[in-house]
């Protein structure tokens, strides 16, 4: 391992590690906190001004970071005017605020409680403010469950919904549904009104299912659609929205009690909705999908005729007449004098989980897994962030004398050089020789101060199934484990050693730095051990390539989120280069000691702006703005060690 980089990693880890650190966690480790959705909140409201109240709110804008118990924001042209209670006001283009465990936001008569980090700016497309909240993933799930579930939902249904909501959010974090956020808080995403005082159903469901999501066979989270009542017939996403067929989707009969509904509308009102010049003379469902839902409606009136899709018709009626008029596309139409009558069953689009049917299953004693298997038969339940979890040992094994033992000693040797800087005994890194027969290497962990094991999947397919990564990923490091793709042993020794060095850095950082270390710093340090990161690629070039591959990065948090959901090794390598460019720039700006101080502040829970100013001082506010928004061109120094 490069001696200069050893010094950097060890200095960083020594400064951050708590005096009595717990160096490992039990299996079932929580998802990494960097996995947080960006949610546009109060999206239905035109927010000219808002008031936020909480305990010592921390505001960051233009290098300022005052604290106040109440803050008022209002739009002022293209900027936001900030008025902290008892302090001078000022303006900024973008504001970030740490809401901590919860703060109240008041917009007119609407008062809601939110936790997480809030970003406010002038809305680029309409009057008022744009508010984007980044809540902890489990806080988000706990808020969505009661907002989207029936009041009388049994526990098994609530748990199933928690997994569905978490899956939907995880998918949106990979493929954002909005230009400025992954999700909004409206029904076409998932209803989210923050914490609901006195209603603990969501919190309990989120805790019982913590970190679990539904995944495709390829490893990515599914778009876990759901609806209130399918009316006895499920539809596929392909038939409703014209999407590509997916293996997890189910259609066909779904036996459960359902209610019928009716909507009566006069011919002239119907004409106005359809854009007909006079009263509608004829209206019929011209095309139905296999479930019987209306795909197209044909109409005639006033000498004109036309066709409207079923999805467009439901949306048109809902926005104009209310969403409880036409509750689903599973309807029949008949004329009654001057009126038209729609008679239908169900409520919602009919794709994915049917809450009415799932409720019946739960009351009949079905478990969460039974419910999810019924409605998402081709999906599997797994952890939300596989690259950050401890993997189940039951599906991993290693034959005696196999190449994984060689890899284990490679990792142990490099991690040992790093650990020597801590004054830790090298015996803590010695892995026992495996006895004859299949077994897991390093199963007998040392108690203190640093324990880890190296696990090799039996096959590449096992590696994909357990880690959720692609077959071209060679190794994944978690807290206490390195999981190895058996394909790594077919690589040249030099390449295998480079992978070992990279994973060794991750092992040490996982052991001595709390979980709040951001992914961009973690991967940036690890990337400096790879030869392709020594090319000192400028951040602007890395980000330009990222934009060309579809990764949207405008903040350091976006960079972390991109790393956690890179999708392909090529994209991951590009994002790692960008992370390494940020790390090199921080080292160049203040040396290794200031980088260590920054990381310590982040690990202790400070946001980046506060931790940066504490470590680097106010003379580098320009660099702070640059890094927070990643808008400047960052040139790397000549050597990462200088």
Mean pLDDT: 76
First-residue to last-residue Cα separation: 17 Å
| Largest sheet entry | 11 strands, mixed
Q: From the alpha carbons, calculate the radius of gyration and give it in angstroms.
A: 27 Å
| Unreliable segments of 5+ consecutive residues | 1-34, 384-401, 421-449, 633-642
Helix content: 25-40%
What is the beta-strand fraction? 15-25%
- Overall structural class, as computed from helix and strand content, comes to alpha+beta
Number of helices: 18
What's the overall geometry?
globular
Total DSSP E strands: 26
Model description:
- With 642 residues, the protein is of the alpha+beta class.
- Helices cover 35% and strands 21% of the residues.
- Strands 1, 2, 3, 4, 5, 6, 7, 8, 9, 10 and 11 form an eleven-stranded mixed β-sheet that branches. The chain has a three-stranded antiparallel β-sheet with strand order 16-21-20. Strands 17-18-19 form a three-stranded antiparallel β-sheet.
- Residues 1-34, 384-401, 421-449 and 633-642 have low confidence and may be disordered.
